[in-house]
Design goal:
Blueprint (H helix, E strand, L loop, with lengths): L18 H30 L3 H15 L4 H7 L4 H13 L3 E5 L7 E5 L1 H21 L5 H26 L19
Antiparallel strand pairs: 1-2
Helix pairs in contact: 2-4, 2-5, 3-4
Length: 186
């Protein structure tokens, strides 16, 4: 695939071609998007100096979205091993973004709870993300945004469905990231 200049409109897949060719062009564009996201992450890591911020934001966002949960439930939720999550949780607790509270059902266990500081961090990240994507979509008209959003949602669902069908694993099933009232996975 030839590299496109920044801001250049992508090819329109499938116009006057067969389905296989159209699918190939969409695949190439998707793979270019993945490479672009990886390059963006590398640039962000170079600025930040580590990936800890990115990883801990994912954990913090998961607890903020799903509610108090045990570290083991959080590890399942983000599909990571407990030892890694435990180290990242310790950093978030140290920063005051998460706190551990005694599990009311099992006093030997603790639940992770987002603090006010943690909610502020999540809100700041969401604002920064919204500003970034406002820049990305600068110049797009509202109809194109709706069309793109609809097609992207359709693609994402199809991609996930095909991947689950091929692998037999649905790790994003709600049970993988839903804590019950005791902080255990439901």
């Amino acid at each position: 695939m030839t590299k496109r200049a920044s801001g250049q409109a992508p090819r329109t897949p499938g116009r006057g071609r067969n389905r296989r060719s159209a699918v190939g062009e969409v695949t190439d564009t998707f793979l270019e998007l993945l490479r672009t996201v990886r390059r963006s992450k590398v640039r962000m890591l170079a600025i930040a100096g580590s990936d800890v911020g990115s990883a801990t934001r994912i954990l913090l966002s998961a607890v903020a979205e799903k509610g108090p949960m045990r570290a083991s439930a959080l590890a399942s939720c983000v599909q990571s091993d407990l030892s890694t999550v435990s180290r990242q949780v310790a950093a978030l607790v140290g920063e005051g973004a998460l706190e551990r509270r005694a599990d009311p059902v099992d006093g030997r266990a603790s639940l992770l709870v987002v603090t006010e500081e943690g909610r502020s961090v999540v809100a700041a990240h969401e604002r920064a993300r919204a500003e970034f994507f406002a820049d990305v979509f600068d110049g797009w008209d509202i109809e194109d945004l709706h069309t793109f959003g609809s097609l992207l949602a359709r693609f994402t669902a199809s991609y996930d469905h095909a991947h689950i069908a091929r692998t037999g694993h649905d790790f994003d099933h709600p049970a993988f990231c839903t804590a019950d009232s005791e902080g255990k996975l439901a």
